[in-house]
Design goal:
By secondary structure, the protein is mainly alpha-helical. It has one domain. Helix content is 81%, strand content 0%. Helix 1 runs antiparallel to helix 9, helix 4 runs parallel beside helix 6 and helix 9 runs parallel beside helix 14.
């Protein structure tokens, strides 16, 4: 319980930083400027997460074994060298692409290169640091470092924007927060209990050489390119079929639900990941499948409940977290809430890939999403840029979820927790139903919005605790 409270407090602080950043950015920037900087952020994510983060995932998979073998520091230095090399190469490639095709509107090549270099090195390094302390069970430090990135990035963004009144300085401050927090890597050390859960396990540590890392990473590079096409390509397609201002408006609305959902996902995995990874290490494929079944039984009902809570809270979030020019986003928020819930449920296949140390299982569903999302956006967005894009992303996420179910049923001996998911949907329906009768335009006072969010949040917390009781005992036993 103490671990859950530490993680929850840290994630609430991160969420507050994200919502304050959204409120300030939608107040200080006009929709077109917000659209431009988020096109740049999408390009940064494509290079950093698509190419560099697969190495981070492989590193996380091997942390427990390397810590037990006394190889942690050596592997850490090797990983940082890989990040620096990739950042230099990718910055040159990305700047060439921007020069030739100008995917990001309104930015100079110098700004593009600077922002891309800072993000491509800073964000993966920050993510590596968070993975290290999370898998080692150092939840307090993980929460502190994550908040350092969030709040220092926000502070730097505000200071730089107020000094220079340029939206690119806002983005530079945000990116620099990751780079600053990543310096905590120099003080990370394995915890004494960072050992496999089963004392008799004799599995050798994962190798950290080009062959095994490449074999693990190349499917993820393709997978992330597919995922990026599904989730981020709207920032470029919408700018073509409508305007870059529409990109800013849609991003603001989608962020209202995506940031809380990602914070919840991160909190859950931060609490559960030490147990999960130790169970993966405890002995072969059968143990890995059983560990995945326990994880899915805990994770998927929680996502459904939280998704329903987001749908009910979304209109009130808009009143609290969006500037006056962005309040129109309230009208389409149900679709992003449903899309994020389906996306988060689909992510269980990523955990299965890590368990099998084979990410190729992710290729079919992510390829489907990469085809479905742009197709639905091109079909629906021209007539209704905001509502149509929200519906398109929701339909694409549902297609991926169906594909994930079919694939996991045939590719691995795993079981979906349908009974618990159904009960979670029933418990969450009252929160979802609230959205159905609320006005599509946020007109209530800030006090009422706070009260509504608090009431819905308390109900969601009670439901989440009820569904979490079966796995809390296992968590306590691994402390």
């Amino acid at each position: 319980m103490r671990a859950i409270l530490i993680v929850a407090a840290g994630r609430v602080m991160q969420l507050m930083a994200a919502l304050i950043a959204l409120k300030l950015s939608t107040t200080l920037l006009v929709p077109a400027e917000l659209g431009q900087i988020n096109q740049m952020a999408a390009v940064g994510a494509l290079f950093a997460s698509g190419v560099v983060l697969p190495v981070v995932v492989y590193f996380a998979r091997g942390i427990v074994g390397w810590a037990a073998a006394g190889q942690f520091t050596q592997r850490l230095v090797q990983a940082l060298a890989v990040f620096a090399s990739l950042a230099a190469v990718l910055t040159v490639i990305g700047t060439g692409i921007q020069s030739a095709w100008t995917p990001v509107h309104g930015i100079t090549l110098l700004w593009f290169a600077v922002l891309l270099a800072v993000y491509v090195f800073g964000f993966p390094t920050y993510t590596l640091m968070i993975n290290c302390v999370s898998v080692m069970g150092q939840r307090g430090r993980s929460s502190g470092y994550a908040n350092l990135a969030a709040w220092s990035g926000l502070g730097l963004a505000i200071a730089l924007y107020l000094e220079f009144s340029d939206p690119w300085y806002w983005l530079l401050g945000t990116f620099a927060g990751y780079l600053l927090a990543a310096q905590a890597l120099w003080i990370v050390r394995p915890a004494p209990h960072a050992q496999p859960a089963t004392p008799t396990a004799t599995l050798a540590p994962l190798p950290f050489s080009l062959g095994p890392v490449f074999a693990f990473a190349w499917p993820q590079v393709i997978i992330f390119a597919f995922w990026w096409t599904q989730s981020q390509s709207y920032r470029f397609i919408l700018a073509e079929v409508s305007t870059v201002a529409a990109v800013g408006l849609f991003f603001a609305g989608y962020t209202l639900v995506s940031v809380p959902m990602q914070a919840f996902e991160g909190a859950f995995n931060e609490v559960y990941s030490p147990t999960l990874y130790r169970n993966f290490e405890s002995g072969g494929a059968p143990a890995a499948s059983q560990a995945w079944n326990r994880y899915a039984s805990a994770y998927m009902p929680s996502i459904i409940l939280f998704g329903c809570c987001l749908a009910g809270c979304a209109p009130h979030f808009a009143r609290l977290a969006l500037g006056p020019e962005f309040q129109v986003a309230t009208a389409f928020l149900l679709w992003p809430a449903l899309a994020e819930t389906a996306r988060a449920l689909s992510s269980v296949i990523h955990t299965l890939g890590i368990a099998k140390v084979d990410m190729r299982i992710l290729l079919p569903p992510t390829a489907l999403g990469a085809i479905a999302a742009p197709a639905f956006i091109l079909l629906l967005a021209p007539t209704s840029p905001l509502m149509g894009t929200g519906m398109a992303l929701c339909l694409a996420s549902c297609c991926v979820l169906v594909a994930v179910y079919v694939l996991t049923r045939f590719a691995a001996p795993v079981v979906w927790p349908w009974r618990r998911m159904g009960l979670a949907a029933l418990a969450g329906f009252p929160m979802l139903a609230i959205w159905l009768w609320e006005s599509p335009v946020a007109t209530e006072t800030i006090v009422f919005a706070l009260f509504a969010c608090a009431l819905l949040g308390l109900y969601a917390i009670a439901c989440l605790y009820f569904f979490a009781r079966p796995w809390l005992g296992e968590l306590r036993r691994t402390q």
